[in-house]
## 1
Amino acid sequence: MFRLSTLAALLLATYSANADQFAIKASANVAHSADTLLLLVSPDQLNTNPQLAAISKQENFSAEHGKTLTWLAPAAPYAQYQRVVLVGAGESELLTPYQVSLLGSTVAHSLLNSAAHTIQLDSTLLQSAIAQPELLAQLSHGINLASYTFNRYHTDDEPEKIRNIYLLSRELTATEQRLAQINALTEGVVLARNLINEPANGIYPETFVKQALELRKLGAKVTVLDQAALKKAGMGAHLAVGQGSQRPPYLVIVHWEGSKQQPLALVGKGITFDTGGYNLKTQADTLLRMTSDMAGAAAVLGTMHTLAKQKAPVNVVGLMALAENMISDRAYLPGDVITAGNGKTIEIINTDAEGRLVMADALWYAEQNFKPRAIVDIATLTGSKVTALGAYYAGMFSKDEQLVAQLTQAGVTVQEKVWRLPLTDEMLPELKSRIADLRNTGSTTGASTAALFLQQFVTDTPFAHLDIAGNALSSSNKGLHTEGGTGFGVRLLTEWVLTQQ
Ligand code: BES
Ligand code: MN
Ligand code: ZN
């Protein structure tokens, strides 16, 4: 037990420290101690300053979005700095909040590659339609997310020296308030990334539950259903997936009741490792990626963290279905018939189609116990989705046009995009079993039949399923992402929830 709680504490320590390669503060005045001046510039504004215009011309810098120019040992009036970094914003009237967060990413990469230590950031040259508090908050979000690292297992890493960034602000109070809000979002993403990056001997159902319990400190209600409670509730599908592992399954529920309206429900797939079970995954690289098969649950926990930390005026319940899909003499077998919480019997055609089984029970439980206004689930559910959409989009499946429109819009806003794929009863014959009510795979084993399987466990609540297989891990540092866990879904779900008030 001691070991477990130490791990939980360490992970939390890690997740706050890792967002802190930079300490970012708003200030009303120019910091005198700064060694570096960061100037955000657009092509037009650049030309109104003859000195900057001359330097830019000489260096072929056109203030294109995401381009930088470092001017070492600058002349007056910048002589007090060791360097001035011009950060191109492109046409500033056209900037969106997301594009500003990308500029934050540019800033982070540029600073991490330099000896800059104390940084003054000045965005006042920009003539953007975005209010200054929002602009500075998005920059800060991008700086923190793009400088994220997961280094708790590197024993020889030097401790990072924290660099200070001062954001020059003419609306200090509003900027500080907006920064506090967006920092809660950054923390939610970082929490999800840490959980995803943590290997299966660090995060398994019990240690994931410990992480969820931490949200009590933020005033959320956390309920844990252990194996006995799952049995009592009759959730035989979730139990079947978990029964092969020494590490028992859990359903953990985080409830943030920031308003008295009918709740929204978020349901996440939390397979802490997916061997495939007796339908063993045989491709080494696919198997290795299965430490991220709890990315849906991580996105739900990250979102709940954000909402609770923000004290958002919303009523949201997050359910995370946790299990390890293993091989052992107790594991479920192909051909087994199991009974889900809703009483339906399922013939196991393939033990590797485990995600839909744990999700089926969690969806049923969410609808029965919380009577939500809408249910959105998020899961690394199928390889078929990866083939169809890769990392470009999450697959979205829903019969509810309103939910489809809302999630599409939220995805565009935060650039965690979703693309609708079919969810249609036309495919139901594929899920018919000779000996049970349902089979756990369709004959075409696709993302759509998986979604249709899930739909069988929601009766009359507006429901959308997000398949994020392919979105959970990034292969490079690109945009707001760093290599490894992306935390995909935290920004999307938070945006969706906050626009549903
Ligand atoms: N966790 C996998 C899906 C997955 C694959 C996620 C690749 C990320 C990358 C899921 O549990 C799975 O194994 N799905 C099978 C289902 C099939 C056996 C019907 C699949 O899609 O191959
Ligand atoms: Mn699987
Ligand atoms: Zn899986």
## 2
Amino acid sequence: MRAWIGTIAVSAVLALLPGCGKDSGGTVIRFVVQPDAGGGFREIVDRFHNAHPEIRVEMVEGPASTDSREEMYIGAFMAGDSPYDVVLMDVVWVPKFASQGWLAPLDDRFPEPARAAFLPGDVKAGIWEGKCYRVPLRSDAGMLYWRTDLAGKPPETFEELAAKARELKTADRGGFVFQGRQYEGLVCAFLEVLWGHGGDVLDGQGNVVLDRPEGVEALRWLAGLVGDGAPAGVTTYQEEEARAAFQEGRAAFMRNWPYAWTKMQEDGSPVKGKVGIVPMVHAPGKASAATLGGWGFGISKTAKHPDAAWTFVEFATAPEQQKLLNAKNGAIPTRRALFEDAEILAANPHYPDLLKVLLAARPRPVHARYSQISQALQRHLSAALVKKETPEEAIRQASSEIRGIVGK
Ligand code: GLC
């Protein structure tokens, strides 16, 4: 198995070079995936090889950040002759990849009756201009984790969370941790704060409304916590750094995706049995909001083996494989029926509540130029968190750049 992973890492590099990574014969399909910490993806590939020895799947474990993996795919598509027949996509990539013509429509292979078995938000995120490009593999929605042994009850408002975080921090324990590094995860965390204040980035007509007072309020709250209710180092955190801090007892509260809960329950986890998971806090009189995340499979327009690619996509998104990925990696299923599965419920008693959050989760701006919108947000949110810009400046600058990008 180790040697196989080594080969994959090399093929990941070769695959980025034009003309390399071509099949030397036989049916080989490749895709890029996040680091497979729980081993669930590797086991799915093993199962697939047993079931379909005629097809070889090469799984390239890319960097942890979604932005970097997106660049790997984009680089390959732009070079032409992409080595990736299968495209494992974040929800926010679909508009760009589809509008660039990089994906094959899946409407015939994945028709509406088949889609009905999946959570509606995840299906919708795979549709661009009326065509379906993505089969949902795992769902996601941001949540608030809290230490049941430290706080008597979970906070409900931003004010309560900030106050509790300050109260519970000690010399070796921070209050609140989240994804504060300059990357996509920061946008996801900020949107929950923004929506929870009643604000938004774009309105229903696509106009930029980020610079309304709620936007400044939201960023003032988040940036105000850094170095106080949140450790200063949070500005370097992605998901796994936040999880490690919380799991090792170095934080009282955490914003993260639901996968972290599975990790917290593993034997040897210092916080096992001491963790609650609830919807993100909100401003008084406003509602909680969760950012919709999640991953799914598309097929490249130039795939050399589209049928083999589909065989794999169908296999990997089947109930048994989603269950495996849930048990091993904490991935949230996208098939509705799995939220009533006895085994899944026994290990995850909070899933009925999580399902409600998933069904209400809000998408990030759905736009073909989303990655540029996100980058403008990332730059200025991060500048505010490290105190290079005031929250007012950061929101003003980000809004003006986003107006330039969306043209409204
Ligand atoms: C998770 C989400 C994904 C999001 C990413 C940000 O992987 O599923 O949608 O973009 O986190 O870091």
